[in-house]
Specification:
This protein is mainly alpha-helical and 139 residues long. It folds into 2 domains: 59 residues, lambda repressor-like DNA-binding domains (434 Repressor (Amino-terminal Domain), Orthogonal Bundle), CATH 1.10.260; 48 residues. It has 7 helices and 4 strands; from the N terminus they run ααααααββαββ. Strand 3 and strand 4 form a beta hairpin. Helix 2 packs across helix 3 and helix 6 packs antiparallel against helix 7. The protein is elongated. The protein starts with a helix and ends with a strand.
Length: 139
Amino acid sequence: MLHERLRRLRLLKGMSQAQLARALGVSPSTIGMYEQGRREPDHNMLIRIAKLFDTTVDFLLGAPSRRDKSFEELLGEFKRSLMQQEGLMFNGVLLEDGDVELIVDAIRQGAQLAVSRKQPEKGETKKTPAGSRRKKEGR
């Protein structure tokens, strides 16, 4: 879990392994081993990593993040944020409350489309994690 989260955080911050190594005062190979799960950082290093990425040691070690939110929660926050903006414009046109509703609905529909494209149609084969194919269940 640590190795996956460390790599994800590094990539989200747009850092190379060498840049992260410099920031933490270790060698790039040490970062590589952390990310491969071949080596674990000590307690002090975990604290330094957490501070660098503005997260917690608990999160690095696999505890669910209090920051993790559902898509609908994030969409609700986005909608509230847009509604609170006075004089919100898009391409020079003033947006009203109804326009914000349309924008949020469009985002929701886009997400539904993205998910539907990842789900096989009835009767299609579905790729298994091992790479083999099998018939979709429920037929």
